[in-house]
C-alpha cells in the first residue's frame, strides 16, 4: 500500500512539472510569469530536500511519509474549494 501511494504521489509531482507552464499560460501569464512559477516550484523543492532528509533521520520514515501525505491532502482539499 505504501509503495502504491508513494508511486502515485511522485507520479503526480512529475506530471505537474512539465505541465505547469501550460497551466500558467492558460491562466493568462506571459513568459516572465511562466519562468517565475517554474523557478519557484523547483527552488522550493530544493529548499525542502535537506529538511526532509534530516527529518527522515530523526523522526523516522513513517512520520515523514504521513506528514507529507497529510500536507498533500490538505493542499488538494484547499484547491478543490
Characterization of the model:
The chain is mainly alpha-helical. Helix content is 90%, strand content 0%. It is built from three helices and no strands. It has helices at 2-26, 31-58, 61-80. It starts with a helix and ends with a helix.
List keywords for this structure.
mainly alpha, 81 residues, 90% helix
Described by its quaternary structure, the protein is single chain
Structural class, by secondary structure, is mainly alpha
**Which ranges are low-confidence, i.e. pLDDT below 50, for 5 or more consecutive residues?**
none
Give the averaged pLDDT, no decimals: 84
Radius of gyration: 15 Å
Q: What is the terminal-to-terminal distance?
A: 28 Å
Short description:
By secondary structure, the protein is mostly helical. It has helices at 2-26, 31-58, 61-80.
SSE arrangement:
Blueprint: H1 2-26, H2 31-58, H3 61-80
Amino acid at each position: 500500500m505504501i509503495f502504491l501511494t508513494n508511486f502515485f504521489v511522485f507520479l503526480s509531482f512529475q506530471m505537474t512539472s512539465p505541465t505547469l507552464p501550460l497551466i500558467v499560460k492558460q491562466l493568462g501569464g506571459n513568459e516572465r510569469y511562466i519562468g517565475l512559477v517554474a523557478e519557484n516550484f523547483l527552488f522550493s523543492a530544493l529548499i525542502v530536500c535537506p529538511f526532509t532528509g534530516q527529518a527522515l533521520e530523526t523522526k523516522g520514515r513513517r512520520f515523514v511519509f504521513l506528514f507529507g501525505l497529510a500536507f498533500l491532502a490538505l493542499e488538494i482539499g484547499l484547491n478543490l474549494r
